[in-house]
């Protein structure tokens, strides 16, 4: 399933980024809006990533203890991602919230399939159609069998060009992530620094209005001399 994992990575990360940016430009957005979007609580993303790495570390732990530990780590990933999404959709537009919830819904569907089976079940038929030798296992994938539960939520959709099999949840994650990127490109961007600099230069070079500002000594103009001084 090594090729399947790399194919899924392209679909879940590369494809949403490309489609999202293209859709954002077509709909009138700009990349500056995406770059100007402020993200909150990024430490939750790092925590979710650490839990994900730990899942691979305990992959070879067999028995009930291994399944419980993997389930706990999986729950940690989803709880932290959910908390991060909730922290960042606050105050955003309704469209962006809907896109984020779509991606979250896809993640929850994947999580249910993994939680009930210990790993993500994949269809042997779909794997064969995608050119993947059936029966392979990875840290997160296992071939579906008679004892598999919610197998229809597993990786059952073949993607032959990428030699990968994906799930309904993967599709929702991909579409939701692309929509988030496209929507964020419509966020207002702050004034450009060069414009602010030009504005300050204009203020410094503004004509003298004759007023004496605090902290500045203004030499007396010749036409302000008193008659006594003119008369010598």
From TrEMBL:
Segments of this protein annotated with the region Disordered: 188-232
Q: Name the residues that span the membrane.
A: 6-27, 39-57, 69-87, 99-116, 162-182
Name the UniProt key words of this record, in alphabetical order: Membrane, Transmembrane, Transmembrane helix
The UniProt regions of compositional bias labelled Basic and acidic residues, in chain numbering, are 194-211
Kindly provide the name given to this protein in its UniProt entry. Answer: DUF5317 family protein
